[in-house]
Amino acid sequence: MEITRRNMLIASAAATILPAVAQAARAPRELPKFRNEDFYKDGKFDPGVAKEAYYQLMRFHTYPIVDRLKTEDFWALDFGLGNFLEAGMAGIFWVNNKEHNYFGHEIYLLPGQAIPEHQHVATDVPLKMEGWQARYGMIYLFGEGTPSTEFAEPLPPMHKDCGKTKCVGILKPGQVAGLTKPEEWHFMKAGPEGAIVTEYATYHDGKGLRFSHPKVAL
User: Fold this and answer.
1) 168: burial class by Cβ within 10 Å (0-12, 13-18, 19+)?
2) Domain residue limits at 117
3) What distance in Å separates the CA atoms of residue 211 and residue 106, rounded to the nearest whole number?
4) What's the CA dihedral at 16, 132, 82, 154 to 10 degrees?
């Protein structure tokens, strides 16, 4: 058969589309009912079990599980609070370039799961500024500003006594939002189908993270 540019393009498209179609066919019709105790063994958080839950989330949303997501670059944590389904996340830093000051991150949240409220401050590098694009599912985005009255989405229980945010909005697939000022307190909470969110930001320096909850540990 004569190999033409057209044939090569068709073959390339098939190689891209067919795995996605196969994954969609395997996608569960609904997420399992996760139990917090399933993520702990002898009182210690098990990141391996957590990752498997996030793979189920990815398959549910027909999100491609590329090889790098099966390596140690993909991580999960419960922020040391012992309540993974309330306070937890998984993520992968696709890129974090200090020299040129840019960062690309994917955030994965199970249904109702939230990242604890936090802010970014300057260290030996400028403070981090960031924005988010909901890709799959939706999130409640909490930040500073005028208290919200449009709908009631209360702070998660972990923030009852230490929360600083008063404004909450909804971010749906394709929508983008970002910090409104440096050092703004903020966090996100997933909707009922969990969420996968792309973060665009300047360089991420973990030393610049500050959490409002006094017991958060990374």
Assistant:
1) buried
2) 5-211
3) 20
4) -130
pTM for this model (two decimals)? 0.86
Residue 69 φ then ψ, to 5°: -75, -5
Q: Is residue 216 part of a domain?
A: no
- 204 in Cβ contact with 118 (< 8 Å): no
Asked if the structure places residue 115 within a domain, the reply is yes
In terms of phi and psi (left: phi > 0; alpha: psi -120 to 50; beta: otherwise), the region of 137 is left
pLDDT, tens digit, for every residue of 73-96? 999 999 999 999 999 999 999 999
Q: Are 131 and 121 in contact (CB under 8 A)?
A: no
Task: Write the pLDDT tens digit of every residue in 89-120.
Answer: 999 999 999 999 999 999 999 999 999 999 99
- Which of 126-161 are b and which e, b meaning 16 or more Cβ less than 10 Å from the residue's Cβ? ebbbbebebebbbbbbbbbeeebeeeeeebbebbee
The amino acid sitting at 52 is E
CATH number for the domain spanning 131: value is 2.60.120.10
What region does 100 belong to: left with phi over 0, alpha with psi -120 to 50, or beta? alpha
Looking at the structure of the chain, the number of domains it has is 1
